Amino acid sequence: MDKAIEYAVKTVEKSLDYFYDCFPTEQSRDLVFGKFENVSWTPGFYAGLLWLTYELTGSEAVLKSAKHHSRLFHERLKTKTELEHHDMGFLFSLSSMADYTVTGDTEAMHDGLEAAGWLMKRYQLEGRFIQAWGALDDPQAYRFIVDCLLNLPLLFRAHELTGKKWYYDAAYNHMCTAVKNIIRDDASTYHTFFFDKETNMPLRGETHQGFSDDSCWSRGQAWAVYGLALCYHYTKDENIIPVFNRVTEYFIEHLPEDFVPYWDLCFGDGSGEPRDTSAAAIAVCGILEMEKYYPNARFKDAAERMVRSLSDKYTTADRPESNGILKDGMYSRKHGHEPECTSWGDYFYLEALMRMKNRDWKMYW
Ligand code: GLY
Questions:
Q1: Has 237 been annotated as catalytic?
Q2: What integer pLDDT is reported at residue 205 of this predicted model?
Q3: Quick count: other Cβ atoms within 10 Å of Cβ 149?
Q4: From ligand 1's centre to the CA of 61, what distance in Å?
Q5: According to a count of CB atoms within 10 Å of the terminal CB, is the N or C end of the chain lower?
Q6: Would you list the DSSP string of 252-311?
Q7: Domain ranges of the chain
Q8: CATH code, residues 2-357
Q9: What integer pLDDT is reported at residue 110 of this predicted model?
Q10: Which residue in the list 99, 111, 147, 276 is annotated as catalytic?
Q11: Given this model, what pLDDT does residue 281 score?
């Protein structure tokens, strides 16, 4: 584990100057990330990677870069760049809130709270969910996605910091809507779920990045594992526990021999399909979070096997030209992507290693 951490933090430090005033692209090309503006949903992962690296190394240079990236998130708010976005949690939990968590910087905390306010604008009061993409008054866009569970901690945290109950209620209601609708009877998940805008009755599940509407997209299932663990952390709602257990069991049961899933859980060894290493890293973080409250030897063993497999077989250690850490991430096979490093895969892999090294690590979520 120490060697795996050393490789990851060295890789981050290698590109510190290159990414000083920007962010890595969502995914690499030929395992090399290019430069990206602070737009869309992924820049927070680089900010989080810097904060993890700082906590693991104590490097002043890394701290300087992490603080600079906090400023870039402050500017994103001031310039109102793509803020009407359901992924404000992915963006601001790992940047502004991470800064506040690590350094106590209250200006960063206020940026996080401002971001939570923006996220609230996408909350559909009648439907009781945070709408994913599209205009809020468009009946065709009246749906949420399983990934959004990871945006809820920003609202739970905003409640903790301000005492304002509407943040908690929105997050809690979204969680309940998700548990009720996006998780199938067999504990697999739909990627996305539609409601009728007039009646607010559930309509149907569909996929966006998975193989088919009735298959189980690996990263979607991993978002459910980690999202539920985070919801439990904030709510201590015991109803979550059996759901978490069943969803996690489904994920583990569908892992191939080396414990790193193919991009959809309908594929197994011999399918010839690419994997999604990021899904494994995300699931590990969820299992290790829940491990704090409900230790489960089978889940913990699976988490350890996933991390070992990722670090033994799936890092860029054999590709010195790469500026990423974890290979074989799959953004969206359905949209023609190839296996690459992904900005979120690198983040969750290092978070998983951090959680293994330090069980008491104070998370940024
Ligand atoms: N949240 C988008 C994705 O997982 O690709």
A1: no
A2: 98
A3: 28
A4: 30
A5: N
A6: HHT--TTS--BSBTT--TTS---B-HHHHHHHHHHHHHHHTTS--HHHHHHHHHHHHHHH
A7: 2-357
A8: 1.50.10.10
A9: 98
A10: 147
A11: 99
